[in-house]
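Below: protein 1.
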Amino acid sequence: MDISTETKPTSRNLTPSSATPRILVVEDEETLSLLLAYNLESEGFIVECVERGDEADMRLIEAPPDLVILDWMLPGVSGLEICRRMRARQSTRSLPVIMLTARGEESERIRGLSTGADDYIVKPFSVPELIARVRALLRRASPDRVASRLSAGNLELDRENWRVHRGTRVVHLGPTEFRLLEYLMAKPGRVFSRAQLLDSVWGLSAEIDERTVDVHVGRLRKALSQHGESDPIRTVRGAGYAFDETFGGG
């Protein structure tokens, strides 16, 4: 799995101006923990990762974050028990919790939600979908903390309503093209390899060829530049793709 640690460029007019939300990721699978931290930090969140349930419980008492991404099966204390303890404490009673688990049965989902989780995602999952759910929960908890729109030049992406406009024109995109544009647009100038895009846009379970990325980028470009408008997607030969950081800059 290709996880870049390069420094991300400053996003122009794409980043919320309010205080940055803090997210605690409680996950004992190191590769997944790194992937979540990388993508959440790329979205502008402050992220802390812990591997053990007992350590997470201490951090929640010492410095409650704005949202918790919590694995069900953990060493020390289970995610389910942590969730119970959070709901029993005044300081964390209303803290948003997304539970991650390989348990996909309906009875297990009901159990997790009944324990106090606000949302429940079954592994493997799509990282963009997880980030969308993070934003939705934060928006409900603190509406002023998360930007629902990304814009550059005459291009605007509405995360909440899943719509894209180029000037007055509605850009019709499929779900994959929308997630691809959102991911690139949130980090203008940053070059992502095809492998990185597969991990982040298609999800951890994607068993598809990297050339599929090229196909969807082609569809995205066609939809965005349907009437001869300038192409906001930049191809970096031998490296991957980026949203043009100079797009709409005059």
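Below: protein 2.
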Amino acid sequence: MSIQQQQKVALITGASKGIGAALVDAYRKLGYAVVAVSRTISPSDDPDVLTIQGDVADRATAEEAIAAAVGRFGRVDALVNNAGIFVAKPFTDYTLDDYAAMRAVNLDGFFHITQLAVARMLGQGGGHVVTITTSLVDNADARVPSVLASLTKGGLQSATKSLAIEYATRGVRVNAVSPGSIKTPMHPEETHEALASLQPVRRMGEMSDVVDAVVFLEKAPFVTGEILHVDGGVSAGH
């Protein structure tokens, strides 16, 4: 086996900006090669970062990403399901387009690439899946009505535990990180004060907080089925 094939490989969705781009950097610092997937991602100058332009909701994108990882680097050791859509609206204001978009990215995107990645991991003797969810799943807040986030991301948290148990004896660990309000390009600066007030610690989290949590889970071989809250205390109460 060549040195290149022995290098661990991470596949990261929603990788063009924000937390996704920070995760690409973090996995490179861990020594992993990275396959970075996003609709808007540009080619990388780093020979150990392979970018795939595509919609994660499309099965063909998942197939291309897995094939590229195996073809270029020989394996898939980690998958971070970071791509996601969050739309906060009163329930009766959601449109069919809102529902279709969130279902496609949050659920279809998870299903397609996770199914293919886990199959590859099983064939090579193990791997790790991490999914980014939201703390609103566990702690609904009337000030942030977000039923579709709870419907989709809540399903992913349940799926995380189910998959962790299904594959516990076969070397594949499955975990999730459940953030509170994080300073990302998704949140304009004028919203930061209001979002900070929703967190018990009265400030927003940094992207590095989420990245550090994913890296911790990556390095924790005895942790599986964990929903790691990175939410400034939201999961504990108000």
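The chain has one domain: 3-229.
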